[in-house]
Design a protein that fits this description.
- With 447 residues, this protein is an alpha/beta fold.
- It has 3 domains: 53 residues, Electron transport complex subunit B, putative Fe-S cluster (3-methyladenine DNA Glycosylase II, Chain A, domain 3), CATH 1.10.15; 250 residues, Alpha-Beta Barrel (TIM Barrel); 122 residues, Rossmann fold (3-Layer(aba) Sandwich).
- Helices cover 40% and strands 18% of the residues.
- The chain has 18 helices and 17 strands.
- Helix 1 crosses helix 2, helix 5 runs parallel beside helix 6 and helix 11 packs parallel to helix 12.
- The N and C termini lie far apart (69 Å).
- The model has no long low-confidence stretch (mean pLDDT 93).
Amino acid sequence: MALKGLDIFKLTPKTNCKECGNPTCMAFSMKVASGAIELSKCPHMSADAISKISESNAPPMKTISVKAGDVEYKLGGETVLYRHEKTFVSKTLYASSICTNMDDALIETKLTDGLKVDYDRIGERMYCEFVFVNNGGDNAKFVELAKKAAATGRGVILNTTDVDAMKAAAEAIKASAPILNGANAANYEAMSGVATAAGCVLGVSGADLDELYATVEKLEALGNKNLILDVGVASIKSAFENAVQIRRAALLNKDRVFGYPTIVNVAVLSGGNEALETALASLFTVKYGSIVVVDNMGYDKALALYGLRQNVFTDPQKPMKVEPGIYPLNKGDENSPCCITVDFALTYFVVSGELERSAVPCNLLISDAGGYSVLTAWAAGKLSANSIVKFITDFEIENKIKNRTLVLPGKVAVLKGEVQAKLPDWNVVVGPAEAVGLVKFMKELQA
């Protein structure tokens, strides 16, 4: 249970030295309790006090670090059940699965064509972060598949309850820091030893929640708290119930035994039904899969899942923005006209989509408007003649683009005169009020 301000104050040096930036230790303590200031701001706090306060104030769900190739991700660390309450902090990651029971040709296809999805959306890389390697009973092939999975540069999840097979595979790809998913009530002690020796996250499963809970308690007693909980594949209903109950136990009941991220294997739950798999992956992206395993990740599935994920795991208090800059469309170059708009992600996608549909080469200029829409940015003073001129100067547009046609958003036609006065060498044109009119407008502008 989180300590209150008075409890924290009792552990401070009570010197009122002001070095933390607060007038008194009590003021500092109240801010630490509310999360407004970091405990580390006090240079005189004892190590014991820091340890006690940090443990008490830590989120009910532990934050677990996992490695996916050269990238390190955080799982868990959540503090709310619903996104609108605050925000989710650790996005769902995805894994494409292979198994020792598959023939070699299929495995090669899944490790090449199956990992081709890799694109950028609003400044975030969209790709399948992990390869899930399942041991169907062939231990030697399991080790070989682990090596092949590691060679892809993605993170690796090793799935087997065979301790010897897990040890051999983990040792073979130790540098990849794989997740070892295979601890249960029968083998938890040996599996914990393998995971601890390799410095890896350990996946834990149980026949039901009671068994899973008891196994986690035993693992924690061994000193292993670097865990991820497997919700099981007995049925869709049980997997969903387990995912929800684990999260509710951790966040509502403050039960730290269940305060770990989860892994959900929808490839198995869907039974080979591609549409059902996509639907389940969407479901567990929202509630509450930290890692979701699919059979394969194609663009048809990825576009829906990654768009959903980005919306769910974006802070609702912060607008989604695209990076300000020059975006050539339809092979636009230095001789193509410029269309300027704001950095609000929805505006960018709508405007760029219509401009691409026009097939007219152009340069879309995205200015920094704080993530606001066109009218909101104009009302807030973030889209003005001065901001447009500043953008053109800061990004050296006149040195990069010879064409001197600048199309303004139709809803801020009022800016035309002032922009034209400040940019006398440009032909400032007012575009349509709605993006849907850009196709006809651009074609007429080209003519």
